[in-house]
């Protein structure tokens, strides 16, 4: 199974909003009581995780899945991001 297929299976089977929030908390993100966090320097948290696992930054307009977050904000390659999520989830 190639890397994209592995990522698709993970998203389909495991990566709902609750699991993505858990992964983000493990990475050090803190969520406020409304369910918002920050992925960049800002005064007011503007990032929310949807029920389907999509991460949306309302302040910058950025959106993506956990793999996008890991590659763009944590300097991981896509391969490293998929392996990281596999180890954390499975």
Task: Label this structure with key terms.
single chain; 90 residues; alpha+beta; 4-stranded antiparallel sheet; 4 helices; 4 strands
Summarize the structure in short.
With 90 residues, the chain is an alpha+beta fold.
What order do the helices and strands come in, and which of them pair?
Blueprint: H1 3-13, H2 17-26, E1 36-37, E2 47-49, E3 55-57, E4 63-64, H3 66-73, H4 78-89
Antiparallel strand pairs: 1-2, 2-3, 3-4
How does this structure look, described?
The chain is globular. Strand 2 and strand 3 form a beta hairpin. The two termini are 16 Å apart. The protein has a single domain, classed as Alpha-Beta Complex (DNA Primase, Chain A), CATH 3.90.580. The protein has a four-stranded antiparallel sheet with strand order 1-2-3-4. The protein contains four helices and four strands, in the order ααββββαα. The mean pLDDT is 96. Helix 1 (3-13) runs parallel beside helix 4 and helix 3 packs across helix 4. The protein has helices at residues 3-13, 17-26, 66-73, 78-89, and strands at 36-37, 47-49, 55-57, 63-64. With 90 residues, it is α+β, with helices and mostly antiparallel strands.
